[in-house]
Every structure is written in structure tokens, then in C-alpha cells.
Amino acid sequence: MTTLAETATVHSTQRNRKIPFSELADPGTYISNATGNLFRVPEDALVVGRSPLIEIVSKGGTMMTQISDDPWLPISKARQIAADSDLSINF
User: Fold this and answer.
1) How many CB atoms within 10 Å of residue 4?
2) What is the pLDDT along the chain (91 residues), one digit of tens a residue?
3) How far apart are CA 88 and CA 86, in angstroms?
């Protein structure tokens, strides 16, 4: 039986990719490195020309860390993965 901590470690190890927001290409759950805000990016959000389209405009760019490929990761698991990865949590 897999524990929540083991599951979080697996998610954390498999993901934790830091990429600029402008280069998001995969659906999943992301955390803004600057603010600690959580972003859910479903597959539909990445299709060119379809809603919802999200744009973040910033002088220095916005770095994001993907913590899971599941855009609907439960908040409790997202918090645990973020904490285990030493990421700011603002959600």
C-alpha cells in the first residue's frame, strides 16, 4: 500500500520542472516560483486559439514549477508536494 508521503515523493521526483510560464506546453499543476500561487493547466488551456487563454506579463518573466501532470491534483496533495520541494505555498 502506498502512503500519501510516498505518492507525494513520486509526483515530486517525476515533475518539479522549472520552466517559464510562456513555455508551458504540458497540462498539470504548477506553482509560481515568485508568488507561491497554484495554477491548474488543463489540456484545453494549451490548445492554440481555444479558451481559456491565460497570459502573465512580467518584466523578468514568471518561472513556474510543475509539481504534477494532473491538473486536478487535490489541494492537500499539492501543498504537501510543494512543501516537500521547498516551494512557497500561497494557496
Assistant:
1) 10
2) 555 555 544 444 456 889 999 899 999 999 999 999 999 999 988 888 776 677 888 888 899 999 999 999 999 999 999 999 999 999 9
3) 7
Would you list the domain boundaries of the chain? Answer: 4-84
Angstrom distance (rounded) from CA 18 to CA 66: 7
**C-alpha grid cell for residue 56?**
502573465
For residues 63 and 18, is the Cβ–Cβ distance under 8 A? Answer: yes
Kindly report whether the global pTM for this prediction surpasses the value 0.90: no
The answer to whether the Cα torsion of 61, 40, 15, 78 is positive or negative is positive
Strands 38-41 and 28-32: what pairing? antiparallel
Amino acid at 53: L
